[in-house]
Design brief:
The protein has about 260 residues and is α+β, with helices and mostly antiparallel strands. Helix content is about 35%, strand content about 30%. It is globular and about 50 Å long. Bound molecules: L-MYO-inositol-1-phosphate (LIP).
Amino acid sequence: MNDISLNHLLDVAICAAEAAGTHAYENKDRRKETSETFQHDVKLVLDVESQRKAEAIIASEFPTHGILGEEDATPNLSTPYEWVIDPIDGTMNFSHGFEYWCSSVAVRQNQKVIAGCVFAPDFNAYYTAHIEQEAKLNGSPIRVADTASLQNAMVVTGLSKEMEGSREPHLEMFRMLALNTKKVRINGAAALDLCRVADGTCDGFFETGIYLWDYAAAGLIAEQAGAVMATYPRKCDLHGATVLCSNEHLIEGLRAVYTKCI
Ligand code: LIP
């Protein structure tokens, strides 16, 4: 099978993320229609509908490719290509009418993320990258901040839906970083948080218990903007990864804090 060009794959990722995000955005008056609720999470009717919009774009271009979406998965083991979709990242924000949410679409080849787009409709922001192209925001190159110490860093995190109580390492990590950085922020959409590290707004990101669809596209965008990603236990693990991300100066400090907290 011939390789498909990275530009073509990225174009389809952009169209798919745009289709999902636009569907949710245009139907935000239905944001309270829930299909399931949990202690720390909610599933919206629009989650599934928006994922279907992204899937339709991908299937019309690449009918044989596999799809791994937050709202269900259709693996296809006969193709090396797999699309990873989070139709609404920051679902809780979206359902409350808080504008910090996005749609995320990445494509993997043999399990390696090679292109991706994060689209934040309320900010009209398209973050994009592929492995042979610098990260961009609305077509202009972006770069991580050059902050040299954690003491001067603003670090962003999220509260996982997988939290297991007060012994959760993430809460300890939050405490240590709150005391030892300039500020810690919680915004509520991991993909967009990673993009805000990519564009230099935030200096670092950490979260435990997040999923591949939360960070597949945005992790590549951050790396192509000069960030270093550290994922535990493994980069390709589907479930419950811990993700650290920052510029090269801060990553060892984040790793050291994480190691103390587990
Ligand atoms: C959410 C994240 C959020 C994180 C939650 C969850 P969803 O994704 O982006 O930042 O804290 O654990 O994974 O469920 O809204 O797509």
